[in-house]
């Protein structure tokens, strides 16, 4: 698939439970202050290493603040060859309100 799909937090949670990888493209301070448990921080510095080590067949969920910037990042990653790429509608803000128990703090996990 060279396109991505937009999904709500409920569907993202189901995919996480099935082993999907979650990447967060917000700034490092926002990520450290709170992010989806188990997610990886992805920025221009970590992108090449992430792609080099990635399993392109594993579903990939991209999140940002509100679900806007993640769409551009998801499109980019889909064009890099990832088979299933999703953008989280509502971003981390909506996620945090719906799944407060699935939020972690601290630097990259």
Automatic annotation (TrEMBL):
Protein keywords: Cytoplasm, Transferase
Enzyme's top EC category: transferase
Record's protein name: Thiosulfate sulfurtransferase GlpE
Protein origin, superkingdom: Bacteria
InterPro entries: GlpE_sulfurtransferase, Rhodanese-like_dom, Rhodanese-like_dom_sf, Thiosulf_sulfurTrfase
Annotated function: Transferase that catalyzes the transfer of sulfur from thiosulfate to thiophilic acceptors such as cyanide or dithiols. May function in a CysM-independent thiosulfate assimilation pathway by catalyzing the conversion of thiosulfate to sulfite, which can then be used for L-cysteine biosynthesis.
CDD domains attached to this UniProt entry: GlpE_ST (cd01444)
Active site: 64
Gene Ontology molecular function terms on file: thiosulfate-cyanide sulfurtransferase activity
Organism of this sequence: Aquipseudomonas guryensis
Primary subcellular site in the record, as a coarse category: cytoplasm
Catalytic activity: thiosulfate + [thioredoxin]-dithiol = [thioredoxin]-disulfide + hydrogen sulfide + sulfite + 2 H(+); thiosulfate + hydrogen cyanide = thiocyanate + sulfite + 2 H(+)
HAMAP family: Thiosulf_sulfurtr
Family: Belongs to the GlpE family.
Subcellular location: Cytoplasm
GO cellular component: cytoplasm
Domain spans labelled Rhodanese: 16-104
Keyword Chaperone in record: no
E.C. code: 2.8.1.1
